[in-house]
User: What shape does this take?
Amino acid sequence: MSMRAHTPGRTAAVTTRRERGQVAIEYLGFIPLLLLVGLLAIQAGLAAYAANQAGTGARAGARMASMSSGGCDEQAAKEAMSDWTARRAHITEPSSSSSSSSSFDEVTCTARVKVPRVIPGVDIWGWAERSSTMPRT
Assistant: This one.
């Protein structure tokens, strides 16, 4: 009988190497899930940022329009937004058929910003839309 086969230190070393290999394989299988969760977190952050910028643009457009006799000020709305969201934005005002009888006393602007995609071909959020109404001065 050999003394090496029953040496406790040698058996522990072999077990440790095997366990390390198993942990590496398990981690390798878990990486795609971690990447997917990370990309979804980034996508949610971009959607929240686009919604925030749409609100900023709608308020700025309505504020400038409230000081003049015209409609929603698209230039002021886009200047209030960051460059990359302004390029994706559409600034509109509601049609006269849906406005209330007090439309001469207030102005409403709506900003729609296309939410950028992190994963090409997966468009889960679409557009971020915010409206703002200001009284005319």
In short: The longest helix spans residues 8-66. Helices lie at 8-66, 74-80, 83-87. The two ends are 101 Å apart (CA to CA).
